[in-house]
Design a protein that fits this description.
single chain; mainly alpha; Transferase(Phosphotransferase), domain 1; 2 domains; two-stranded antiparallel ribbon; 12 helices; Kinase-like_dom_sf; CHK kinase-like domain-containing protein; EcKL; CHK_kinase-like
Length: about 250
């Protein structure tokens, strides 16, 4: 429920950049392994009737306090939003993605009360896809409007700079792998994933602690949630961002 501390975000973004860079390194240094073991990995969520209905059900809850004007705008793009969310968006540049890169899946080390190191865990949802989506999933999963206003651009730049430096250790030029201009274009083109994430999956994250659904016992289409009030403020902040960025 909390907004992540900046230091935690910086260290986590750097780790994500190195993880993605490692995929590009394997692609160049071990191409056969890359083709067989990495490029073949599919997302755990596949676009289909069940997940479309799940998204629709979550949207009924998530949009509950949005203005009619905003709901009308979202409704006009609902099919596009759901398909984009469920297929992970499209970018020409792809790599091995974590698939669930959020605060809950990152261990942190405290030294005298200060965050000094982080270690990502829980790689069971890895897939071959867009690195931008992995990054946006992390940012929009645990930040609010104020945090993004102050640190979003900084973290985006840190991600690309970290990747550039890591690739240099292996004599790989980032301008060949993921040029800054291409990265910026992909980033701009996929910003709406932040809204989709908050409409369709964040309700699960913001479910009241005593009311978390047991997915082993409940059918996907029967999942119901009761949301913490902080969710609606968080979602409105995302909506405000999308309007400011010309995405809504």
């Amino acid at each position: 429920m909390n907004v992540m501390p900046l230091k935690f975000a910086e260290l986590s973004v750097q780790q994500l950049a190195r993880f993605h860079a490692l995929s590009f390194i394997i692609e160049q240094k071990r191409p056969e392994y890359f083709e067989k073991k990495i490029k073949s990995l599919k997302p755990s969520i596949q676009y289909g009737d069940d997940y479309v209905e799940f998204c629709k059900n979550m949207y009924k809850v998530s949009s509950n306090r949005l203005s009619n004007e905003i709901k009308d705008k979202i409704d006009k793009k609902a099919d596009e939003y759901m398909k984009n969310y469920l297929t992970g968006h499209k970018t020409d540049v792809k790599c091995l993605c974590h698939g669930d890169y959020r605060m809950n899946n990152i261990l942190l080390k405290l030294t005298e009360g200060e965050i000094t190191d982080v270690i990502p865990v829980d790689y069971q949802l890895m897939y071959y896809g867009s690195p931008i989506v992995d990054f946006l999933f992390f940012i929009f999963g645990a930040t609010d409007k104020e945090f993004r206003r102050n640190h979003f651009v900084h973290l985006k730049d840190m991600y690309h700079e970290t990747m550039e430096q890591y690739l240099k250790y292996f004599d790989i030029d980032i301008d060949i792998v993921y040029p800054k201009k291409k990265f910026e274009m992909d980033f701009e083109d996929n910003l709406e994933f932040g809204l989709e994430l908050n409409l369709y999956i964040a309700p699960i994250i913001f479910t009241l602690e005593d009311d978390v659904p047991d997915f082993d016992k409940v059918d996907l289409l029967e999942v119901k949630v009761k949301l913490d009030d902080r969710y609606y403020e968080r979602l409105q902040g995302v909506v405000d961002d999308m309007i400011e960025w010309g995405k809504l």
